[in-house]
């Protein structure tokens, strides 16, 4: 993105949003990427979204509401906020579970704490899949 990428907070050679299909560009005869002027606003939206932990798949879903080469509008932000409410609430709930349960058995299968044998005898939670089941599932 070169010089314009600096305004958006991107390194000169990086075009992660482009590579992920979130922004579009055209190529010149010299194989340089050229972006529509509204792309900087899209890049700013992508960067802001990533800074709060939104995965590119969620960002792409929200950007799907915005026609190509159209800058984000107030209506877009309202719709994006509504789409993210569910995702944000789920993340908050998962973090609260981690905060509240992390010092006890989390169902990871280690069975190293005395409490694990009571809460997850014989690693019964393994039937629900790998990983810390009590943190992942409500």
Task: Describe this entry's structure for a reader.
This protein is an all-alpha fold. Helices cover 51% and strands 3% of the residues. The protein contains 7 helices and 2 strands, in the order ααββααααα. The chain has a two-stranded antiparallel sheet with strand order 1-2. Helix 1 (2-8) crosses helix 3. The radius of gyration is 21 Å and the shape is elongated.
Layout of SSEs?
Blueprint: H1 2-8, H2 16-19, E1 26-27, E2 33-34, H3 39-51, H4 56-63, H5 74-101, H6 114-119, H7 133-136
Task: Note the main attributes of this structure.
138 residues, single chain, two-stranded antiparallel ribbon, 7 helices, elongated, mainly alpha
